[in-house]
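Suppose a classmate hands you a notebook page containing two proteins, each written out with its sequence and a corresponding row of structure tokens. How would you begin to make sense of it? This section walks through that situation. The first entry is reproduced here exactly as it would appear on such a page.
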Amino acid sequence: MLKFRETLKIVVVGHVDHGKSTVIGRLLYDTKSLPEGAIEKVKRISKETGKPFEYAYLLDAFEEEQKQGITIDTTQIQFHTKKRDYVIIDAPGHVEFLKNMISGAANAEAALLVIDANEGVREQSKRHGYILSLLGIKKVYVLVNKMDLIDYSEEKFLDVKSDMDTFLKSINVFPQKYIPVSAFYGENIALRSKKCRGIKVIQS
């Protein structure tokens, strides 16, 4: 008899270049959930474009997206752990692709909102938060990414948290937690980070 497994759909949103696709790519890489040959494909694309290795390329299914370096359509990825199955939805970050982002997020039960620790909260960050509010997604986690760029500063992390929390609470979005991460280096993605050890994962 087959055992029932819970499936959780998670949408990942954030301002362009704040690292949401890298978050997903690194998660899949660290948990050995990538299809065979995916890493080799990324290395080939990086070599062809003359760019450094990018985990985000794992999610860029269309040649147009690979050339532009942006996510145009939503990408859905199956992800599994011992406890449950996941569907990760990578939604576009550019303002001109908001319609695609909404269609992707509409099916989600939880959300990861990614904010660049160095750039801080941007207008698009707020716009995505507002859309999550309209869609009624209650399980929202804010990932403060690229902590390596601010030397894992707790003070700057708290500044970003304060800015975003003030806005989100004004639209009745109450994140479960604010989590400091460095997706490129795998800090606080699949495993707890030693470099972020002194920074508390904050509940809103």
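The notebook's second entry, a different protein, reads as follows.
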Amino acid sequence: MVGKHSKVKKSKPLLGNHQKCWIWGRNAVRETLSAGFWKIWELYLSEKLPAEEIAELETRAAQLSVPVIVTTDKTLTQKSRAGDHQGMIAKMAPFPYAAAEEVLAQNTDTPLYLILDRIQDPYNFGAIIRSAEILGADAVFIGEQEQCDVTSLVCRTSAGAVNHIALAQVSDLVAFCQHLKSENINVLGTAMQAEETLVDYAFQKPTALIVGNEGTGVHPELIAACSHLIRIPQQGQTESLNVAVSAGILLYEASRQRGFQ
């Protein structure tokens, strides 16, 4: 029984359960620590890391009030349940998604947004985020249903890019697309049967680009909500490209047209 003067210690919110709250690997941990965007509860470092690197990471962690534990590789493996931690693991809070309305209010007159429709594979999700950040997208919007969340695996696959681009959840992607169009932002869908190819579209315009589910593509209701439809020309016999590869090709063409060098 808790007395009236006793304090109940509140548990810290975690990214998933205690088994899934860890991120690990050099790129993911260092980028997350450097950005200071996603809350780290605890940082564990291998005693085998170079002393100067441990000191560097401890200094940055102290700036963020993150406790640092220097310990054995075995302990890191036991906690993260991963042998490829590269001497760094971090216990994470839930991912801090941006508010969609705030993202829309902050960007330029010619934004380039990416909308993901039910991307379910964390490797694809992470790879898409990485391409979006590298190739200059202003934000990534995802739905709340049938969509992979930002997890440890997504963070690692993105090489920490989740810390450097706005990621926002939207309850209704169709309504969101209609809102974008009312704000004079072209909603660009991808469909194999589209007449226009990606090079036919002028990406210098304010654009929200949709890529769809690994198995079924962009949902028909979202296709109907698009301002334009484009396709990536294909020559081989394989039915379609991987969604992460498609997103990378489309974003590269957008960046090329916008003067990316």
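A careful reader of the second entry would note: The longest strand covers residues 40-46.
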